[in-house]
Amino acid sequence: MAENTEQNEAKHDNSSSPGMTDQEKEMAASAFEAFTFGKYDESLKHLENLQEMNKEDYKIAMNKAIAEFYKSGQTTTGTLKQTLMTMKNQVHTSVEDIDGLDDVENSLLYYNQAIIHYHMRQFSEAISIGEKLYQFLEPFEKFAQAVCFLLVDLYLLTFQPEKALHLLAVLDKLSVQGNNKNGKGENNSSNKDGLNQKAELMAMIEAAKSKMHQYKVRAYIQMKSSKACKREIKSVMNTAGNSAPSLFLKSNFEYLRGNYRKAVKLLNSSNIAEHPGAIKTGECVRCMFWNNLGCIHFAMGKHNLGIFYFKKALQENDHTCAQLGDGSNGQSKKFAGIPMCALLANKRYELLYNCGIQLLHIGRPLAAFECLMEAVQVYHSNPRLWLRLAECCIAANKGGSEQESKGLPCKKGIVQSIVGQGYHRKIVLASQSTHNTIYSEGQSAAIPVASMEFAAICLRNALLLLPEHQQQESKAENGSKSSSQSGSTESGSENSDACSGKGQEADKFLSAAPSSPLRKQEVENLRCSILACSAYVALALGDNLMALNHAEKLLHQTKVSGSLKFLGHLYAAEALISLDRISDAITHLNPENVTDVSLGVLTSEQDQGSDKGDEPVESWKQTPLCYPSSVTSARAMMLFNLGSAYCLRSEYEKARKCLHQAASMVNTKEIPPEAILLGVYLELQNGNTQLALQIIKRNQLLPASLQTVSPDTRKKPVQSFQPIQPIQMPSSFTQVQRK
After folding, report:
1. Are 393 and 451 a contacting pair, CB within 8 Å?
2. Sign of the CA dihedral 211, 212, 214, 219?
3. 357, 158, 249, 275 alpha-carbon torsion, rounded to 10°
């Protein structure tokens, strides 16, 4: 890519106008020849002489600026950009009125500007210039190829594979036409010259074909189109052999199919030591290698190994930046002292994004928060990244009750302490209400710390970044459970991509750099996730009206997933109870509302691979410990909460029935301590002090002989419950706690 643009810029020196004298043409030819051989001083002398003879022509000044740029080792990108901008103003044309452009020279000026925009990561500006130039390509085919390659690269960097494939089809036609014309023109020249020209052109076409096959593979990978990708991979291996780019592409292809061991094997077989380096190519292959290994291990569920590889990638990236004159610091903003082709080499923020997602899965939310906060400074328009930041805040403020819930509901969760002896012995029950605390003491919520107040801001940002229209076409939500991976170095993305590249327009996608753009169904899945998190955070902060608003919006989404619908009902019920609207809450706590609690799993098109092709699905299926493992468990949880609601209305008999019905639906070990405390409270209200004490001693709602357990729930692994906020209970007993 970088090499391609350098070669194209070299051609700009050979611009000659029809009105030039023979002497001027000779000087221009000498200047171009000197430039081609790298004799920039000599080329500049010729251009200065030419400028004295023709001071009006801005093209000479442009060629002079480019020669000086190459003389400096391509390190004065900012200066060149400024010079070209001045020339554009002199010519009095802009990209908008480029329709009147009919001479090659102005095209070259704009093409140069597009290349600089490309290297400065200003992709949308580069695309707007490139698309205008594309309309004027017929008269000059070599230049057409250069513009097409630049646009293909830009389309792939901005995740528009369909447009890239269309341009590649145009390039195929151009190469075929060039080949035919060469065959016809050979008879008109001497045999020797003709053969040389043909050999040169054939070599160019072959090099272009190899590059086109690689571009096609990248496009098909972005579209998740396995069959077409497999066909193109064979062409790449035939034309490029076992080079690093071809092996990286094949590894990425196997990674998308779920053949992770094969993907690792292919990466390890690439000889990255022979790569020229970032200064010459603008790509740090070592950094890509470690990043890709990290992505593969992430997909395998080996998160600790994944973070180890991402850290190695960060080290390589920092080392490359140090070699380039520390591009990671302020110098990169000035573009001073760094070769233009190397401006794209710094992948720090993509890697930090990957590290953050990996750390969040490991269970290190504070470290993840630090990584993602740095990444969000660059990718601030990515709604999913704001959701990830909010998830870090929630995980960091969740408290230790999940750890307690990993085994049996022990007495430690119910009994706080015992005071006195003998007749005066008293049992002090633990209160769960301590979890509802103000999280930050007197500081502004906008300060980026992992607090619930900051989580609310992140979620507000995420909602505002999503488009307004709500045409859901999704099956299951994967936004808050699955992780997005950087697609910067053939690493693909771990999103819930349910589409396999059926010709959709790029306009239907929502940009979510550095990962793949969000398709329509993914946007709606993400909206549901954000609303669920927003309701949870609002409950944690005691903002019950906002929590109810978010929960009701979530329930009104047209195709909300079963798991989030379940949470929506619980969050809405809790908010309503806090607002003293218990009758409305009881309608939400109807067990019949729960029909599905499955978490969204990866639905992207994956050919089942021979090794470990099914592994990612298993890794995503791991239910969080605080979440019900089946519809029966979820309905039991609803009944526990319904009992609490009846209790608040002093309908103790109804509450007891709900409690006992719920206890009969789940394994004894799955009954949360909050439900046992509710049982204690009901017995105390009934005057059965001795039975209440028995419940505390046995740590069971009912005597063991009366416990009924359904056969299928016995087989379930021990799971704890309730990923929701606590429902407010009377002060004399502890509420049913949800995290």
Report:
1. yes
2. positive
3. -90
> Contact at 8 Å (CB) between 375 and 512?
no
Burial of 499 (0-12, 13-18, 19+ CB in 10 A): middle
Q: How far apart are CA 143 and CA 229, in angstroms?
A: 28
Helix axes 191-223, 244-257, angle to 10 degrees: 30
- 702 near 659, Cβ under 8 Å? no
Residue for token digits 């991976």?
Answer: 485
Indicate the SS3 state at residue 76: strand
Q: What is the tens place of the pLDDT at every residue in 233-290?
A: 888 888 877 888 888 999 999 998 899 999 999 999 887 777 666 666 777 888 999 9
Name the token pair of 81.
């950009």
**Cα–chain center distance at 203:** 39
Q: 527 CB contacts (<8 Å, ≥6 apart)? A: 463, 466, 470, 557
Strands 426-429 and 415-419: antiparallel
CA angle 606–607–610, rounded 5-degree value: 120
Residues facing 336 on adjacent strands:
76
Distance separating alpha carbons of residues 625 and 720, to the nearest angstrom: 5
Using CA atoms, how far apart are residues 735 and 373, in angstroms rounded to an integer? 35
Question: Which conformational region is residue 729 in: left (phi greater than 0), alpha (psi within -120 to 50 degrees), or beta?
Answer: beta
Among all chains, which residue has been given the structure tokens 């229209």? 469
What's the average model confidence in pLDDT over 610-628?
Answer: 47
Q: According to DSSP H, which parts of 503-613 are helical?
A: 520-540, 544-556, 562-578, 582-588
Q: Measuring CA to CA, which residue among 723, 690, 232, 694 is closest to residue 501?
A: 232
How many other β-carbons are positioned within 10 Å of the β-carbon of residue 117? 20
702 secondary structure, DSSP code = S
Phi, psi of 416 (to 5 degrees): -80, -45
Q: Which two tokens stand for residue 477?
A: 């939500």
**Rounded CA gap, 575 and 460, in Å?**
19
Among 118-127, 179-188, 249-258, which range has the highest average pLDDT?
249-258
- Residue 248's closest CA among 607, 516, 491, 515? 491
Contact, 328 vs 321, CB < 8 A? yes
**Which is nearest to 258 in space by CA: 614, 593, 555?**
614
Q: What Cα–Cα distance (Å) separates residue 530 from each residue in 403, 477, 513, 533, 622?
A: 25, 11, 18, 5, 21
N-term to C-term CA, the chain? 50
- Residues 60, 14: Cα–Cα separation, whole Å: 10
